């Protein structure tokens, strides 16, 4: 169809409400978008194994994981960008010496250095994952790691953020930061995917709420920030919709003219 659109959704706080479920109206809306011939995609900081059921539930086969580091188009991996193992070795040693846990994430699993640490329980717990997280301090040695998690408070982070050139740190929880390859973002992932799909950026839409959505919402003209989103996300978006818990996603699709 000539007016076929590509619509990117963040997960947490956008597709998922506060209870980490997709509201019925949002689910119905996604189904409608697909029936209308549009392409529905996910752009998230999560790893693919963390939202497999969600993809199956919504019938989504195109997604950007780990803030752009692992991209799948119609079920096929088209881009992956792991962190250098020497960087992970340095980070692991530094964190260990400060009693700060680290998690290592590849496309199929997440392993954490110290499972019983309070910061891990709080940070990982907030994701409401549907599987038990395993412990493995050396997981990075034999696996391609696309994102690491560093568990420390904001007051403790400066030592890390000043120490690395090839990764950057993005806080998403009081006790946890994503560690991502430098230059990587959802926005860069979207550019890679759109090149592959040969779709004009004017035909793309993006919905998000968090700090890791800001570049994506800035890149895409037809951008919608959730009412529950951070101020930075709202500031760069074309539209601002209601709270995710109050059918904000469904309303945002209507505001953007997609429904």
Tally of alpha and pi helices: 9
Q: Mean of residue pLDDT?
A: 96
Order of SSEs: EHEHEEEHEEHEEHEEHEHEHEH
Our count of domains comes out at: 2
**Beta-strand content bin:** 15-25%
Topology-level CATH name of the largest domain: Rossmann fold
CATH 4th-level superfamily of the largest domain = HAD superfamily/HAD-like
InterPro entries: Cof (IPR000150), HAD-like_sf (IPR036412), HAD-SF_hydro_IIB (IPR006379), HAD_sf (IPR023214)
GO molecular function: magnesium ion binding; phosphatase activity
Protein name: Cof subfamily protein (Haloacid dehalogenase superfamily)/HAD superfamily hydrolase (TIGR01484 family)
What would your notes on this structure say?
The mean pLDDT is 96. This protein is of the alpha/beta class. 45% of the residues are buried. It has nine helices and 14 strands. Helix content is 29%, strand content 23%. The chain has helices spanning 24-35, 52-58, 85-97, 118-125, 158-161, 186-197, 214-219, 231-236, 248-255; strands spanning 6-9, 39-43, 63-65, 70-73, 76-80, 102-105, 110-112, 134-135, 147-151, 167-173, 176-181, 204-208, 222-225, 239-240. The protein folds into two domains: 6-80 and 184-255, HAD superfamily/HAD-like (Rossmann fold, 3-Layer(aba) Sandwich), CATH 3.40.50.1000; 85-181, Hypothetical Protein, Haloacid Dehalogenase-like Hydrolase, Chain: A, domain 2 (2-Layer Sandwich), CATH 3.30.1240. An eight-stranded mixed sheet has the order 5-4-3-2-1-12-13-14, with helices on both faces. It has a six-stranded mixed sheet with strand order 8-7-6-9-11-10, with helices on both faces. The chain is globular, with a radius of gyration of 18 Å. The longest helix is centred in the middle third of the chain and has 13 residues, at 85-97.
